[in-house]
Amino acid sequence: MHGKREDIPLVFQVGSYYSRQIEWGDMDGGFWAFPAGFDSTLLFKGLPNGCESPHWGYLLKGRMRVKYADHEEVITAGEAYF
To answer: Which of 34, 44, 62, 66 has a 20 to 30 Å separation from 78 between CA atoms?
Structure first.
């Protein structure tokens, strides 16, 4: 399956932050855009140990820091991540 960003339903948007998501079989696909300095901690509030669902992604632009219980990682544009 594949889809263009503009063809995937817009689920949420506030300013430059948005989420486009779609169900494809047993997986969810989507595009997310976050403004510089965005802290996603509140998105995971109430979930046990944050979000334990597996996530695959590819960072198109910028960089992002991911905080785990025991370490941090920095993903940069052009890198895939799990």
So the answer is: 44
